[in-house]
Amino acid sequence: MAKIAKRQLALELKALSKLKEDPDNARDHDPEELARAFKRFGFNDPIEIDAADGMIAAGHGRKQTLEMMKASGEEPPANILQDQSGEWLVPCVIGLRSKSKKEARAYRVANNKQGEHGGWNDGALAAVLMSLKGEGGLEGTGFTDRELRQITGRLNPPNPDTMPEREKKKTDKVECPKCGHEFKPE
Fold it and tell me: Which of 75, 98, 117 is the last residue of a domain?
């Protein structure tokens, strides 16, 4: 029987100020959106530390968001502890050990990219988002009311044959998915 090498992953609290970012991290983040999620749900996704170089393997945006929140005088979100000196203590997964710097970089890129390969089931997503409307709304989910309208619009496109003439004129416009600006295509 072949032996399988086991990584010993563990969860430890680390001082926020001691977490080292990869200076070449290529992923951009939206700290304001992450902060909304932390305020609503708490800090539930530990930062991963690569023992090979001591740098963050996954969680640069989470670290930056916590730093922003702390600097603005906010209370630590749920699951972030504070020591007697005021330092925020962050849950971190330790035990990951890359074989080389290139492998560490490849993991950091892969960790960010893998989520982009999937997609959304619009029907299921719309149902979940609509069910949240009465429970704190979409705050912290990363979705907006406009995006929900776009999703439901894709699921239930208007039928021009059954619409009054004044409504047909409204459907001539197209909404930009990034900024929401409406325009008539030429």
Answer: 117
98 close to 110: Cβ distance less than 8 angstroms: no
How many DSSP H helices and E strands does the chain contain?
6, 7
- Specify if 66 maps to a domain: yes
- The DSSP secondary-structure symbol of 57 reads E
Condensed to tens digits (0 to 9), the pLDDT of residues 102-136 reads: 999 899 999 888 878 888 898 998 999 988 887 77
The answer to whether residue 5 is domain-embedded is no
Q: How far apart are alpha carbons 115 and 142 in whole angstroms?
A: 14
Q: Is the pLDDT of residue 169 over 60?
A: no
Q: Which residue has the higher pLDDT, 144 or 63?
A: 63
Q: Pick 117 or 45 by higher pLDDT.
A: 45
Closest listed residue to residue 46, CA positions, set 17, 74, 10 = 10
Structure token pair of residue 179 = 């900024």
Q: Around Cβ 47, how many Cβ atoms within 10 Å?
A: 22
